[in-house]
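Q: Fold this one first, please.
A: Sequence and structure below.
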Amino acid sequence: QRAQQRLQVVVPVTLAIIFMLLYLNFRNITESLMVMLSLPFALVGGIWLMYLLDHNMSVAVGVGFIALAGLSAELGVVMLTYLDNAHRDALAAGRMNSPDDLHRAIVEGAARRLRPILMTVCSTVGGLLPIMWGHGTGSEVMQRLAAPMVGGLISSTVLALLVIPAIYALWKSRGLNSKNEN
């Protein structure tokens, strides 16, 4: 009970620290919030796998979710950084005049990050699967640590590859539309 009370303090503090680091990285609240959006998607995958494996909430599960938050934010940062770079390159080249130009820049930025994101997720999940299916002394605790991370990384990857570029397109198209109206 004491450990769960500590987790009730540690989890919000961890989320606040993640947001602060994101803001320091991007210097933009909107982009920081886009990355923070990946956390609920990661939680969904972690919770589903916990349900399928019939694991209860425990301190180890809480630690797994904290680690998942960091990994999920990292995936979002990687995607958003390359979307920003592709957008900036298109602007510098004078190729940001229409929604189609924006779409091309976003596809280009997302495509550049597809392989690194998938490599990161596959290597992390590959390293966690033996822990999740292990038997022996201490394996019960380690399984509960690894399960939310595996499930959450899968759902977080879908978010990083599909949802973040879509939200980025909506956000940048607002600026493009107001520029074209002037």
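Q: Good. Now the second chain.
A: Here it is, same layout.
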Amino acid sequence: MLKLFKKIKLNNQLKKNTVFLWDSANNDFIKVNDFKSMPLDLLTGIDSQKKTLDNNTLNFAKGYVSNSALLWGSRGNGKSSLIKSIFFKYSKIFKDLKLIQVKKEDITKINSLYTILRNYKFYRFILFIDDLSFEKIDNEYKILKSSLEGSIINQPNNIVIYVTSNRRHLMSKDMIDNERSSAIHTDENIEEKISLSDRFGLWLGFHSLNQNDYIVMIKKYCDHFNIRCSEIDLKKSLEWSLIRGNRTGRTAWQFIIKLASEKNIKLDF
């Protein structure tokens, strides 16, 4: 009776909502009412990544078997923003497309999530795992690797996994180097350590913006939010990036927040 009640509840949630957080402890889904995404055309300097993930998501939304994706690179360069923006774009067109955020600590129960979602074949689910990395070969690592490796059997066709990480192989360089120096069968051991990333059909790398792309992004933000941006403001934006020690989308957005505040302009998107 309880299982039937949960099934009816989830079915009603899926009809009315598009974005969820998964509560693994109760095998339940928490709807997200205030989901926001940056307009896709404001994401600058990542045209190739944008096109690849857009095409993959569109194919998936249309019902085709599609690749899971690993978006890797230094923080603040638009990995999570790109996933959210592309999802938002296609969720307006394909009402059966859903986004479910899964916390790293819940990866050990991901097969339970598969069991639930495979019963809702009419819907297409993007499982979003943000800022994932591993310090050791723990249960989460092994389970995610096994899940992706055995995707023909385990991962339902109505599910793709989009993961963001600041590490290309999801593991620290020190950890890999330590294994390289101590392993008896070095090549095999290291291959095992980095093999998780190979399970993703798409690898998309994100790097800091060059100065031109950074300025273009500042101008796009200003145009979008109707902020008058002078040459002095652009110079200040470069000074801001030097103080922050990087030129990233996050740094640009933080400058826009500061600039809008100084000009008494409310940001709304």
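Q: Anything worth noting on the second one?
A: The longest helix spans residues 2-16.
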